[in-house]
Every structure is written in C-alpha cells, then in structure tokens.
Amino acid sequence: MRVTVEIKGLKDLEYELNRLxxxxxxxxLRQAGREAxxxxxxxxxxxxxxxxxxxxEHMRDSIKxxxxxxxxxxxxxxxxxxRVGPSKAHAMKAKAQEFGTVKQIPNPFIRPxxxxxxxxxxxxLAAEIRASIENYx
Length: 137
Prior knowledge:
This protein has 137 residues and is mostly helical. The chain has helices spanning 10-20, 22-47, 91-99, 110-116, 118-136, and strands at residues 64-69, 80-85. It has a two-stranded antiparallel sheet.
C-alpha cells in the first residue's frame, strides 16, 4: 500500500517558526503534536491487549504521548518528534500483538490507530500551529 501526502507552505512555516524563536517554537510544536495525536492515543488504548488476570501494569495503561525536541540535534532535520505508544517495558508485548508470533496471530493496534486518524492529525497540526503562530505575533 502506497501512501502519499502533499504538504504545501513549509518554507512559510519555517520562516514563521524562526521568527518566534527556539523556546516558543518548541512549545508550539509540542502542544500541536500532543493535540493532534490525542485520538491516536485513545484508539491505541482501546485496542491494546489486556490481561485481566495480570496484577502488574497493563500495556494499555503505559501508552502515552512522548515528545522530543530536536532543535539542537545536528543528526536530523526534524524540529520535534512526537511518538505515541507503550513504554519500553511493554515493547515486546506490543510487537507480538502488532505483528504476531509463531503462537499468536497478529492483532494490530498501533498502525491502524495512526492510519485511521491520519487526516485528523494533519488537519489538527495545521490548525494548532496556525493558531499558535497567530497568538504569538
């Protein structure tokens, strides 16, 4: 399956974000990313595996939105990374559910959550970034 997304106006966005300064840009992008990924978080939590007999933390309870500023990172061209998923402690469980194992059929919950909400994510990112830039002008 091939997915194509066309995004216009990135030069203008870069110009506006540079005008805001590093601290405000980080805040704007972090807030917009969290807002855009909120439905993905809920979707993942709904479809993540759950073992009622387990007394330890469940995988779905460890699913969170995590953001990382890449402003000072010279390795990537990214400014902000936004991730949604389970904690490292549940990484193997998540992979087993997502892709299956020899003894378990796949029951994907990560990729479908992102695919289903793709248009909402893009629209929300654009709206949130636009509104934040307008507020800081």
